[in-house]
Amino acid sequence: MEERRKLGEFEIVRELSRSSIASVYEGYQPSLRRKVLIKRLHPQLSGDTEIRARFEREAHALAANRHEHVIHIYDYHASKEMIYLITEWIESGSLVDYKAEHGPFCEKEAIGVALDVLSGLAAAHEAGIIHRDIKPSNLLVSERYGIKITDFGLAQFEGSPTLTQQGAIVGTPAYMAPEILSGGEIDARCDLYSVGVTIYELMTGVNPFAADNVSETLNRIGTLKPPALEGISSQFNRFLAILLEKRPEKTIRFRTTSL
Predict the structure, then answer these.
(1) How many helices, marked H, and strands, marked E, lie in the chain?
(2) 141 in helix, strand or coil?
(3) Secondary structure of 5-63 in the HEC alphabet?
(4) How far apart are CA 153 and CA 42, in angstroms?
C-alpha cells in the first residue's frame, strides 16, 4: 500500500477540494485513531502576510468559540514553509450537498437549521467574533450534532483592525448584507442577514440575489425585496423578512441571535 503523506503527525488520506488559497483533505490522526479535516495553505502562498493572518484568525476564532454548532479545532501549525489547520471530521458534507440530494427544505427543516446556526453564531458574537461569510457551503451537516458552522477565515474580531483594504469586497457577495457593500458598520447583524439569505435559498432552491455578474448581484442586494414564501406560516415569513431587512438601523434586524 502506498505510504500516506503526512503533515506532522497527521496523515493525508485524500484531497476533498482545492481553491486558489488552500486545499482541504480528509486526514487521519493515528495517535487518537480518528478522522480529521485538514486545511492547508498552498506552500507558494506561505509568504503572503494577509493570507497567513487570515489562517491565524480562523484558528483563533475557532479556539475562542467552542460550541456544539461550531466546528472544533484540534491543531494549528504555522511555520515559514507551511500553515495548516486540523479540525473535526464531519461525514455528511455541507448544506449544499444535502440540498442537492434532498431538494428544497420544508419549514420544519429550515427552522431546525436556523436554530442551530443562530445558536452557534450567538456564541461567536458573545465572544466578539463576526463570521462574515455565512452561506450553505460553510454550514456542515452532522448526523449527531446538527449544523456545524465552519470556515472562519474571514472572521472579524471586535476591536481588531480589518485585514481587508477599504473598498475591497471580501466574502461571497450574494450573501452579504447591504451595509457591508456600502461601507457601513460590520456587526452581528451582518451575519444575521446572511442567515436570512441562506434559509431563503434552502427553502426555494435559489439565492434571490445571485446573478451572472457581481455588478448585477450588488444591484439586486440594494434594490430587490424577496417575496414572501407560499405554503409556510406567517410567523416564519415574518422572521425571514426581519433577517432580510436592508436597513439594520430600523429595528429591524435582530440585535441578538434568537428565534
Answers:
(1) 7, 10
(2) strand
(3) CEECCEEEEEEEEECCCEEEEEEEECCCCEEEEEEEECHHHCCCHHHHHHHHHHHHHHH
(4) 15
- Amino acid code (one letter) for 86: I
Task: Exactly one of 116, 133, 151, 191 is catalytic; name it.
Answer: 133
3 state DSSP class of 159: coil
Q: How far is CA 195 from CA 80, 149, 183, 219, in A?
A: 37, 11, 20, 20
Please state whether beta strands 129-130 and 83-88 pair in parallel, antiparallel, or not at all (unpaired): unpaired
Residue for cell digits 446556526?
117
C-alpha cell at 217: 448581484
CB contact at 8 A, 161 and 141? no
pLDDT digits (tens, 9 = 90+) for 23-59: 999 999 999 999 999 999 999 999 999 999 989 999 9
Q: From 215, 220, 216, select the one nearest 246 (Cα to Cα).
A: 220
Give the CA radius of gyration of the chain.
19
- Dihedral sign (CA 228, 229, 235, 241): negative
- As a whole number of angstroms, the distance between CA 58 and CA 151 comes to 7
Measured between alpha carbons, how far is 139 from 70 in angstroms, rounded to an integer?
9
What are the start-end ranges of the E strands in 126-175?
A: 129-130, 139-142, 146-149, 156-157
Distance CA 193, CA 254 (A): 9
Q: What is the pLDDT of residues 151-198, one digit of tens each?
A: 999 999 876 655 555 555 567 899 999 988 888 888 899 999 999 999
Q: Is 133 one of the catalytic residues?
A: yes
The DSSP bridge pattern shows strands 129-130 and 139-142 to be unpaired
The neighbouring-strand residues paired with 34 are 29
Which DSSP letter does residue 145 get? T
